[in-house]
Amino acid sequence: MQFGFVLRMLRTRNNMTQKQLADTLGVSESRIGMYERCQREPDFEMLEAIADYFNVDMDFLTGRTDIERQYTFSPGSAPPARALDPDEEQLLADYHDASDEIRSAAATMLHTSAEANRQDARLSRSSVS
Predict the structure, then answer these.
(1) Given its phi and psi angles, is residue 63 left (phi above 0), alpha (psi -120 to 50 degrees) or beta?
(2) Single pTM value for the model
């Protein structure tokens, strides 16, 4: 089964909308839609985040196996979540207080900047190899 179909199954099984999943993962709703329609594939870090969120193995997520969790981990094995610094907390508060139009514009700007940074990092890594 393709990743997009597995993602949609996990999302709907957990009674989540594409927007809710997008907000949880820090990506756009349209990106989740493209994943589910098999029009776009996530990078490794996003696959890992999705697998962690739904508590499934990456092999299951990518359709390589029908076994959702082949390995189990002790509760203390996961690193603790990083606390937000005061600037991040203020940014989230401002985001929640902003209009839908401003939220959309800010999300687009941040997404574009993050994608450019990831692309620059990939190019830097490939030029070193």
Answers:
(1) left
(2) 0.54
